[in-house]
């Protein structure tokens, strides 16, 4: 796995399956991993759902606004960084965030 610091790779496009890991706090653990996901409605919107800890798999955490999505079905990492306080959590810093644009492979889980 090749985690990259979000603040250093703002130009990257993140697609469904990309991961974001960052320092957090209550109601999550000290560190949380979220995954970029599709809308269950099938309307081509992207959002994030928690992948780890007590909140893992529990509802969609946030939906990105339609204006933020690229024509190719991605979202730019820099937009997530810039809008962190409103899209993720105002008390958590985007400077503590890491991204894994290619997501996980099955071998990464061994």
What can you see in these coordinates?
This protein is 9% helix and 28% strand. The protein has 110 residues and is mainly beta. 22% of the residues are buried. The model has no long low-confidence stretch (mean pLDDT 91).
Instruction: List low-pLDDT spans.
Output: none
CA-based shape: globular
Strand content: 25-35%
Order of helices and strands: EEEEEEEHHE
Q: Helical percent range?
A: under 10%
As laid out across the biggest beta sheet, the strand order is 1-8-3-4-5-6
Radius of gyration, in Å, reads 13 Å
E-strand count: 8
Average per-residue pLDDT, rounded, comes to 91
Question: Distance between termini?
Answer: 12 Å
- Helical stretch count? 2
Biggest β-sheet: count, sense, barrel? 6 strands, antiparallel
Q: Decide which structural class fits the backbone.
A: mainly beta
Layout of secondary structure:
Elements: E1 4-5, E2 13-14, E3 19-23, E4 31-38, E5 46-50, E6 60-63, E7 75-76, H1 77-82, H2 84-87, E8 98-100
Attribute tags:
single chain; mainly beta; two-stranded antiparallel sheet; 2 helices; globular
Briefly, what is this?
By secondary structure, the chain is mainly beta.
């Amino acid at each position: 796995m090749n985690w990259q610091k979000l603040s250093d790779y703002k130009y990257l496009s993140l697609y469904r399956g990309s991961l974001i890991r960052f320092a957090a706090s209550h109601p999550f653990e000290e560190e949380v991993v979220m995954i970029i996901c599709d809308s269950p409605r099938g309307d081509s919107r992207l959002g994030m759902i928690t992948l780890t800890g007590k909140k893992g798999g529990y509802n969609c955490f946030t939906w990105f606004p339609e204006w933020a999505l690229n024509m190719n079905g991605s979202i730019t990492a820099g937009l997530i960084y810039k809008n962190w306080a409103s899209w993720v959590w105002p008390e958590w810093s985007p400077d503590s965030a890491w991204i894994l644009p290619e997501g996980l492979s099955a071998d990464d889980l061994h």
